[in-house]
Structure formats: C-alpha cells, structure tokens
Design brief:
2 domains, 5-stranded mixed sheet, 23% strand, Peroxisomal Thiolase, Chain A, domain 1, alpha/beta, 33% helix, 4-stranded mixed sheet
Length: 332
C-alpha cells in the first residue's frame, strides 16, 4: 500500500525578538522567574500590525517545497492548523492558497490548537493513501502576540507564547519503510475550560461586550497545574501507543519531537520515556509556545541543522487545549 512521506519541511519566525527582560518592563516578572517555570528565554512577535498567520505560513511553505525539490504549483491540497486565524472567517487556508498563487486548490483549516499539526497529519495521510491528493501542504502557524494580556493578571499565560510557522509537504512513497507508520489522536472535553479564550463567543448575544472585555474574558486563561498534570501523563502514554501501533519501540527512535509548551514538561516526558536528552528536539527556549507550529518548526530546525536526516525514525507527541493530544511515528 502507498505510504505517506514527509518530502520536505520549512519554518519561519518574525524578526522581532522579545526577551524575558523586555516583558519585565510591561508586567511584574523577571528573566529568572520565566526561565525557572518554563525554560523560555525569548520569543518572536510580528513586527507590525497587519501580519496574520497566513503571512507567516508563506515563507515556511516555500522552504518546505524547496527542500522537497518541488514547485509550489505542485501543491494540490492545503491543511492549515491554527488557533489564531487571520480573521474569524474565512479560514486562513484560503488566504495562504491565494498568496501562494494556488487557484482552485482545496483548503481545510484544523482547529485543534497544540495538537493541530498531528490532527492535520492524520488527514493528510488518509488523503494521500487513498490517492485523493498527491502533494499536501500541512501548515501550523500562529500569531499569538496580538491576543495576549500584557498585564500582571495575564502574566502567567503571556510569557509562554510566541509567533511562528512551520510547514511540511507530504506525498506518496512506494518505500515500505519510509513515511508515516502511525498516527493516534485523542480528546477529552473535561478540561476544555482549563485552557481557553471565552470571548467573543457565538453562544453569547452580542458575542463581545464591554463587560466581557472589562473582565478580560477575551484573553487566554489557563489552569497551569491541571494542564501540566495532564500533559505529563498523556504525552508519554500516547508516544507508547503510537510506537506500539507502528510496531516499534523506544529503542528504535532516533529523534523525539514533542510539542513545545514548557521545557519542564518536555524534561519530565523524556525522563518518563527514558529517552536521552540528546535525542529530544527543543526550540522553546528561543521561540516559546507557537502552538500548532511547534512540531513542524522544531522538525524543520532539526532538519536544517542536520539532526533530522533521511532514514531516521522520528516520534512526535503533543498535548493541548481541548483537551486534545496525539502521537505519531514517521520514518524520514
């Protein structure tokens, strides 16, 4: 049976570097406090008004195609994972398609937050295995900086997030060992309000009020201890599940690319899995949490550095808002 391969990966981050010291001028925090709790030292923000998630996705997509040795015009489907679309509707996928000059190419947006890339990977895999499409562009892209609460009240969430994009071009391969060996996905709405943005909301009339804004309900809120507990339980669990489904073990894994939510979570997960730190890819120190972009961005950086190579077995794991979580095993 045809297997789905990652043909190339790319990424892009804005040029504006925002350090922990920069944030300490806006709210009651410090470099020491942020590093101790999250491992983050800096993140990137868009340079000016008017830049959306689809804008960051364009150079990431172009890099992925270039590394794959394919022309952008060969893309015949787009999957766009984001929690921060350019506008409420339509989805960012159509904006990206237009900016890439892809007329008539279908675009599907994926709204599974930190697990969005892996949810998208499962869709791309199904499309390619069935022969529906041959070149699927899967993107994770986020502009968080325009929606954060830069006050002491919002500090705990704001220090974690950054802007960035990652992309993967996927296509069929006849190589029995190369490509996607497994993808497993889960969700449990019991924790839906542990990490969320309550407003604006279609369940409210009007969707956004002065009172909502005064109560800061249009900013992200998080129950950090709950999220940490679930993430450190589910990410190792789903990694084992994905490996078992693929008929592999941890000893077979050359590289582990986890979602970049918190360096402490990644350290905990690696210890729980018994993976040596040199086999774990981490980018959170420099980029913070870029949600749906973290896995493709991290893989792209590892690819560029020579850490991710053809023939390697790579395991992915993510956990995020929803709650949603997933894992995957891929031979590059």
């Amino acid at each position: 049976m045809t297997r789905t391969a990652i043909l190339g990966v790319g990424h892009y981050v804005p040029s504006k570097v925002v350090t922990n010291d920069d944030l300490s001028k806006l709210m009651n925090t410090s470099d020491e406090w942020i590093v101790q709790r999250s491992g983050i030292r800096e993140r990137r923000y868009i340079e000016h008004d008017g830049i959306g998630a689809s804008d960051l996705a364009v150079p990431a997509a172009q890099m992925a195609c270039e590394r794959a040795g394919c022309d952008v015009s060969e893309i015949d489907a787009i999957l766009f994972a984001t929690l921060s679309p350019d506008v409420n509707f339509p989805g960012s996928g159509v904006f990206l398609g237009h900016k890439l000059g892809l007329k008539g190419v279908p675009a599907l947006d994926v709204r599974n937050q930190c697990s969005g890339f892996l949810y998208g990977l499962s869709v791309a895999d199904a499309w390619i295995r069935t022969g529906m499409y041959r070149r699927v562009l899967l993107v994770g892209s986020e502009v968080h900086s325009t929606g954060l609460d830069f006050s002491d009240e919002g500090r705990d969430v704001t220090v974690l997030f950054g802007d960035g994009a990652g992309a993967a071009l996927l296509g069929p391969t006849d190589d029995d060992d190369r490509g996607i060996h497994s993808v497993v996905l889960h969700a449990d709405g019991v924790g839906a309000t542990d990490l969320w943005v309550e407003a604006p909301a279609s369940r409210s009339q009007p969707r956004l009020t002065d009172a909502m804004m005064a109560e800061r309900r249009h900013y992200p809120k998080m129950q950090g201890k709950q999220v940490f507990r679930w993430a450190t339980e589910k990410m190792p669990e789903v990694t084992h599940e994905a490996l078992q489904k693929a008929g592999k073990t941890l000893a077979d894994v050359d590289l582990f690319v986890p979602h970049q939510a918190n360096l402490r979570i990644n350290e905990f997960v690696a210890r729980k899995l018994g993976l040596p730190w040199e086999r774990v890819v981490n980018t959170i120190e420099r980029y913070g949490n870029t949600t749906a972009a973290t896995i493709p961005l991290s893989l792209s950086e590892a690819w560029g550095e020579g850490r991710a190579k053809a023939g390697q077995l790579v395991a992915f794991a993510a956990f995020g808002s929803g709650y949603t979580w997933g894992g995957a095993v891929v031979r590059l």
